[in-house]
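Please predict the structure of the following assembly.
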Amino acid sequence: MKKRDFILLGFICLFIGLIICLTRINNQKERYAYVYHYDDLIMKIDLNVDKKYSILDGEVVLLVSKGKIGVLESDCKDHLCEDMGMTNTSGHPIICVPNGLSIIVSGESRDVIVG
Amino acid sequence: MKKALLVFLIFILGSCQKKEAPKATIFAFNTSISITLYDGTKDDLYEVKEIFYRYNRLADYQNERLEVNVWYLNNWAYEREVEVNEEFWDLLLAAKDYYEITEGYFNPCIGQVSFQWKNILSNYQGENMTFEEEKLALKQNAILFENLVLDDYRVRYLKEDLKLDLGAVAKGYALGKVVKYLALNGVEKYMINAGTSSIAVGQETYNIHILDPLDQSKTFMTFKVNNNCVSTSADYQNYVLYNNEKFHHILNSKTLTVPHFYHSLTVIGEDAGMADALSTALFSMEYDEAIDILEKTGYEAVFYMYDGTIKMTDGVVVK
């Protein structure tokens, strides 16, 4: 191998490293919550935009704040979904059984909440 | 040399493109089930969903379905012997095993009382709950397991008011079947979260955080699992307060009263069906009795005691 081949190889490694870093940063930035009504995906919500969403004809209000999502208001009887707090991880889905609603955050997580 | 480097570059960049894991969220067993198969195929995902749907239909006690299910047995098995398919038969035999292993604390024949109890909790308007408990206690004859006759794929009820309720184990049992399917088909890395109360993870280490039953905005402990199943029962879902006493959804199938030994109980073990049955049954047992059952079965558990202390078996790997 000539000297310029080593230089080229160095550039390639640097380039690959850069691509991997950029991909990871991008993946961390892009975070969505998928909202299901029973088996149907009804909404994909960008967690980078703080906003309130009224869904199911106003029966449920979702809140996105600081990269997290939660149920702000629900017309269900037990309001357990409101008590489940805010989530930003796929290991902590928010479920409202009476409304058949589940909110799953994108991405892979090795941290899972049970209860 | 340049060509070799170019090929190498293309190969590396190609490798950087991460393959999307097949995943789905479905609604079954009255909850949301999230399925992610990190090294599975779309066909595997389809099969996994089908397993959950099939057992959801079999355990349905409210609706008549195309196949014989719990609703069908509860409506017809007293009048005549009913033949069931192999999957339903195996589920019934598993329920019988769970009944025997838990010494009757898990009782699939509790439907007459548990359906009524669910109804009371969901329509509660401030009635006297102590009175309701006394009323429930009168139903004990209807729930005797001996009134359920299982004979070579045929089922017969000996009492008219016997009603099956597989709600406490059907979801876990189906999850166990899914785990077996994945093992048989070489899928090793997966995460299945059935309503946050039943979970199965493949051959990767996961941190499991248990929700604090007294404040669900936080968790009270974390443990590690790998290639295992987790099932939790707790008293903060579906309950009413009467005279400062919590009347939750889990009934002691022997006394037909609401147990107050634990706020939350998490069971860890290889079979999701057994873990589900144990988390329900142990909820009605005193601590020492629960430990005896766990030692017999080889399952681990974390107890959030009613006095607020935390106890666990030696095999729980705390993070």
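Chain A has two helices and eight strands. Chain A has a mean pLDDT of 88.
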